[in-house]
Amino acid sequence: MAKKKKAAKRTKKKRGIWSKDDLKLLRKIYRNSSTAAVAKELGRPLDAVKKKASRMGLTKSKQYMKSIGRA
User: What is the pTM of this model?
Assistant: First the structure.
């Protein structure tokens, strides 16, 4: 008999609706943090954070962009 493969473990990530607290934190830390760090802090996929920030009109600060060599 063939053995069943174990399902790969997934990290628990939030899906769907953004809470008011999530939005507040996103607004607070997005400008001066890497998007990957923000996604990790919120427990959400990177693409979800990028899309939500874009829809909210959030941008990275000039100081942050300069610190990563993009300004």
Answer: 0.77
